Amino acid sequence: MHDRFLKACRCEPVDRVPIWLMRQAGRFMAEYRAIRSQHDLLTMIRTPELAAEVTLQPIRAFGMDAAIIFADILPLLETLGLKLRFVSGRGPVIDNPVQTPEAVDQLHRLPVQESLQGTFEAIRLVRRELEGKAPLIGFSGAPFTLACYAIEGSTSRDYHLARQFMYQETRAWHALMDRLTDAVIAYLQAQQQAGAQALQLFDSWAGLLSPEAYRAYVLPHMQTIFASLSGVPVIHFATGNPALIPLLQEAGGDVIGLDWRCSIQETLPRIQAGRALQGNLDPAILLTSPEVIRREAQNLLRAVGERPGFIFNLGHGVLKQTPEAHVRVLIETVQQHGVVPTP
Ligand code: CP3
Prior knowledge:
The protein is an alpha/beta fold.
């Protein structure tokens, strides 16, 4: 079994730096677009054979060191009774967003086993296909990022309705976060049970908060989640605000996922021993040229040096305009230059 990714998560010695890319299963691949042109996104997520196929596509094409199950963070909101649609050109839309304390009281509590069955079955299929090739990562949105969508009802530049609700309806905010926390725990535990070998929490919009707001409105819920998970490494990824890094560690996670705005050199000394790091090449670098990609990837590898516990990734998801050949250049660069000398 090729497990340098899992070893790096645990800060164990590896033969070379492992690499995978957030959003590696997706639109930058022609093979993905061919399947997607036949099915809508939610159908692909709910159909185990389709989800398994697009999960495996980047592994077959580029040989990343980990696969991530093809799913999305938002279908979990359906277990709370929210009506989710993806509208082309607009992104996700929730027809009944949660905008009052009464709406929080009326949320449903549907079992994840039934609503998200397709994802658990897809995990079983992918594990069978991948045995011996690469480990499989399961994932969930974190409660704050999920609450942003639940309250706002669509993608937003700054999620100010969610932030307003948080400050103004604090009791209802914590009730909503409690409900989301329960759902996230059930979802991640079920993915682990189905065969996910690592888990990632995406707190994509946490960087909209100050450290004080994160501590008051988010941290306790994240601590509940991390305390409820065991047996597989958990990656804690957030974007946007380097001042949150100490708080992300206080919340938990075996691996801290860094976005591209953080300086790796300044961040390394702030990561506690025993915790691995993942990141953080700017996804826009993959739009440039093979020369720039090689230079920037080598700079990042050099900056990290021989610290045990590093997983090469982008600082956020791969952009859909990325040429496939550029992904290949990046993977090959890390395969050639990410060699860790044996002590
Ligand atoms: O990493 C992977 O390859 C696994 C698949 C994955 C998807 N979404 C599939 C998807 C993962 C890990 C996600 C996470 C996700 N989804 C996040 C957190 C990560 C991040 O990027 O911050 C968020 C915020 C979402 C919510 C979401 N899903 C939005 C806002 C959109 C629409 C915007 C867009 O990019 O079009 C989606 C749709 C979505 N999820 C796509 C994919 C491949 C594009 C769907 C398509 O084919 O049209």
